[in-house]
């Protein structure tokens, strides 16, 4: 895949001191939404993810969550004159050097597929309409995720790639001014980005996936580690629903970006190959693309952990406690051969 | 007020061909939300505003609205496999050379006031929490307005100033990269911006008002005209609830930005002065600031119309049919003395 780091952005980034970035987290669409039900959030999963994120980011173990979503409760009109000044915020209690990127799941994918946004042609009425519909869908999900994080006391701020100026050229990142994202990080906020409908220099428009966004950010900002939270335990050698599916525990990546399975050792003479499931509606490439994006991050020396959201395994991965592929940790580690 | 057009932005804008911009519209928070009820939209008013906007933007009188909000109906789970590809979009039917900016109304103002975001100090836990809460509130309103416009067939795309990189210095616009906004316009979308919590170079953070955003955009992009939609007929010489209040029909602005009331002719010997209502909770300056911002736009030769949303007067103003201050048009025109 062509080098997507645009020179102008590198220059812009060099102007600013490189922020301390501990981790970039991908919230997979399948992990936090109900896949086959249009625009339906998996509330329980999202809640657990937020709790685990807060624990991973906590600056002091005893700090209690200070809710930052002060919205009106559904159906409960509040007379504004009843609101008192807020005085009980003595501390935030989190160190916020995380970036979070989420997928669309059952928000956006359907709208994009129906109208062909990923294929371009934004001048066409149907595609233009689909672009608008897709953005409404993904930004509504973004808002709900920001709310959930804020309720957990995480100082989350939504930053939609389209609005921030991310654009593509033949579906690779062409420009992405991350100076505002860096300032937000340095001010102590947690930027929440997402897969989005964006403008494309050649084909007019396309869908920019959360995975490509993460890879681009990792290349520019060099986090300590990256965690992908999904709805399955990790990468398998065949569709996970197959009873014979084997969890790939460790994948090593060399300097050219080529990857091989280290653990478990697969018997190639029996023709065991990795057959990756690609969901039909996922317009951005599915699991195989995810491994490729993860490999491009790992070859920089950044460990990537893919595991199931809301488990003890995701909790340890988010805290940065997982090294290599421990026997008592279920998930996939993708790392450089040099690590 | 200091010149807020930052050199770097002028340079960036000169790189791009200036887009054709017919009108910038301000949707006043008081016009589309219920002022004293926290986070409550005035659905009827918003609906009428969107219908009028569509009529003003229609490229062909007979074009029917093609809804672009494909969300799940509240409470109605949709099985995604039931969705068919959309084929009935033959035309959009609007010429989209408008920009819309909305205020916060009962979304955001309370959160900002409670925590003092407008006064700065983003390193303080309370202010940081208030910043997050304010952004959640204003972006949720932005989403609802984008939905309402999209349902009316207007290709609206939300562009939050904080995410787009708008920032202030001592509360004046310090930087605002509008290149993405220009690209969106040129692609045929209608950008929807809003008053937002932003970073401030000196005081850490503040609230950037929709009125300042409009003035900044007008200076850079030179629209044909600007319309402010409010909850009263225009600017009055005293609080409009006063039975003796007089509607100021026409205000003329000279090259220095000084303004005077042209119509009606006020008797200064009786000490009739303009006493402008400033709502206590409005953290961005109220009506007097609005006249000053409007005057700064008018002195560039751009006519500004302030009138009540959802009336025949707003409909005519949006269509660009109002010249000077006709006897049968109720509202306030603010124009250059040279017009």
Automatic annotation (TrEMBL), chains A, B:
- Give the superkingdom in one word: Eukaryota
Q: Which GO terms describe its cellular component?
A: cytosol
Tell me the residue numbers annotated for binding ATP. 105, 231, 286, 290
Aspartate/glutamate/uridylate kinase domain: from which residue to which, for each copy? 92-307
Name the GO terms of the biological process aspect.
Answer: terpenoid biosynthetic process
Q: Which reaction does it catalyse?
A: isopentenyl phosphate + ATP = isopentenyl diphosphate + ADP
Q: What keywords were assigned to this record?
A: ATP-binding, Isoprene biosynthesis, Kinase, Nucleotide-binding, Transferase
Gene Ontology molecular function: any one:
isopentenyl phosphate kinase activity
Its Enzyme Commission number?
A: 2.7.4.26
Residues given in the record as substrate binding sites: 104, 109, 210
Protein family according to the UniProt entry: Belongs to the isopentenyl phosphate kinase family.
What name is this protein filed under? Isopentenyl phosphate kinase
Organism the protein comes from: Iris pallida (Sweet iris)
Record lineage:
Eukaryota, Viridiplantae, Streptophyta, Embryophyta, Tracheophyta
């Amino acid at each position: 895949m062509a080098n997507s780091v645009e020179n102008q952005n590198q220059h812009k980034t060099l102007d600013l001191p490189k922020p301390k970035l501990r981790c970039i987290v991908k919230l997979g669409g399948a992990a936090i939404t109900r896949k086959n039900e249009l625009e339906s959030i998996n509330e329980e999963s999202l809640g657990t993810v937020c709790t685990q994120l807060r624990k991973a980011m906590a600056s002091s173990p005893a700090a209690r969550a200070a809710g930052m979503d002060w919205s009106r409760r559904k159906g409960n009109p509040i007379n504004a004159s009843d609101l008192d000044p807020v005085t009980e915020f003595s501390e935030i209690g989190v160190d916020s050097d995380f970036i979070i990127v989420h997928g669309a799941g059952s928000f956006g994918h359907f709208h994009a597929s129906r109208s062909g946004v990923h294929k371009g042609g934004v001048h066409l009425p149907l595609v233009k309409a689909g672009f608008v519909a897709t953005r409404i869908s993904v930004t509504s999900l973004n808002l709900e995720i920001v709310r959930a994080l804020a309720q957990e006391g995480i100082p989350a701020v939504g930053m939609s790639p389209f609005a921030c100026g991310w654009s593509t050229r033949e579906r690779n990142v062409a420009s992405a001014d991350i100076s505002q994202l860096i300032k937000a990080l340095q001010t102590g906020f947690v930027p929440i980005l997402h897969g989005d409908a964006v403008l494309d220099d050649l084909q007019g428009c396309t869908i920019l996936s959360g995975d490509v966004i993460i890879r681009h950010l990792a290349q520019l900002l060099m986090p300590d580690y990256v965690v992908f939270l999904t709805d399955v335990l990790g990468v398998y050698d065949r569709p996970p629903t197959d009873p014979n599916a084997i969890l790939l525990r460790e994948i090593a990546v060399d300097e050219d970006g080529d990857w091989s399975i280290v653990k478990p050792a697969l018997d190639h003479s029996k023709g065991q190959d990795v057959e990756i499931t690609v969901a039909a509606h996922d317009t951005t490439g599915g699991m195989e693309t995810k491994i490729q994006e993860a490999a491009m991050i790992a070859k920089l020396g950044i460990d990537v952990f893919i595991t199931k959201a809301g488990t003890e395994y995701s909790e340890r991965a988010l805290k940065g406690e997982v090294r290599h592929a421990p026997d008592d940790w279920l998930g996939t580690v993708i790392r450089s051969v040099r690590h």
